[in-house]
Write a structure and sequence with these properties.
The chain has 1 helix and 22 strands. The protein has a 4-stranded antiparallel β-sheet with strand order 2-10-9-8, with no helix packed on it. A 3-stranded antiparallel β-sheet has the order 1-12-11. It is mainly beta and about 260 residues long. This is Putative chitin binding peritrophin-a domain protein. One of its GO terms (cellular component) is extracellular region. InterPro entries: Chitin-bd_dom, Chitin-bd_dom_sf.
Length: about 260
């Protein structure tokens, strides 16, 4: 056994190096390289249209330059396609309304940090500011985003995580993770997933549809999703009680100093 130990250590190190070589960073996409987003039509554009696409999945009926009714496309033909005079519902998406598997769009950041794309395994998002558009990074061909390394991993090593939505709107886990989760919104036969992340030391509960924070002890702990807030943990009747507190406007919580500055 002792004679085999050096060999086993060598083999472990070799596998670690090989694994590291299979994980590479993505390339940040310029705004101009992202797919064009959908632009709603207008009944008052002066073209005399009888209908316009008000969204990717619904159309507005026009009369006298005004929208008089909103009509959703049916589930069999869920996409609205604009025409020169009137719109039509189709099984094929219009420009800017690509199928969810091919969409490359920024997301509105629900938390700081790195988040997977809810629909496309080939890209991931870096969120630097809350409620602002993410920076989109694309993996090389044959690679997908890996949640553990926050980099791109070869398809030969494992498979990408895909969000599995049900037939109705609701929350689902993101693969085996309990920190990342998705909200599936079903409307007019079209399902759209939105990605979210619980703060560090938190797990998502499908029973309460919320992130449950686990206190590491008594004290104040920064909210990793939003540094302008923090969790206050204290003991009461032998159990930890946790409350989310907000810092004054324009300040962030300093965990070392234990106050907002």
């Amino acid at each position: 056994m002792h004679r085999r130990l050096p060999f086993l250590i060598f083999l472990y190190n070799l596998l670690s190096i090989t694994q590291a070589q299979l994980d590479v960073p993505g390339v940040r996409l310029n705004r101009s390289s992202l797919l064009r987003t959908f632009t709603p039509g207008s009944c008052s554009d002066g073209t005399g249209r009888t209908s316009v696409c008000s969204s990717c999945s619904s159309q507005s009926l026009c009369f006298g330059g005004n929208a008089i009714a909103e009509v959703p496309c049916p589930g069999s033909n869920p996409y609205c396609n604009p025409g020169s005079v009137e719109t039509s519902c189709s099984s094929s998406p219009a420009a800017g309304c690509g199928s969810t598997g091919s969409q490359v769009n920024a997301i509105v950041c629900p938390a700081l940090g790195v988040l997977p794309d809810p629909s496309n395994c080939n890209v991931y998002h870096v969120c630097r500011n809350l409620q602002q558009n993410s920076d989109v990074y694309q993996c090389p061909p044959g690679y997908h985003f890996n949640l553990t390394t926050k980099w791109c991993r070869s398809d030969q090593v494992d498979q990408c995580v895909r969000i599995t939505c049900g037939t109705t709107s609701g929350f689902v886990y993101y693969g085996n993770s309990r920190q990342y989760f998705a909200l599936c919104v079903v409307a007019n036969g079209v399902t759209t997933p939105y990605i979210f992340k619980c703060p560090d030391r938190s797990t998502f509960s499908v029973n309460t549809n919320s992130c449950v924070y686990q206190c590491a002890g008594q004290g104040n702990f920064v909210n990793s999703n939003d540094p302008s807030s923090f969790y206050q943990c204290y003991l009461a009747n032998g159990s930890y009680v946790v409350t989310l507190q907000r810092c004054p406007t324009g300040t962030v919580f300093n965990e070392s100093l234990q106050y907002c500055s």
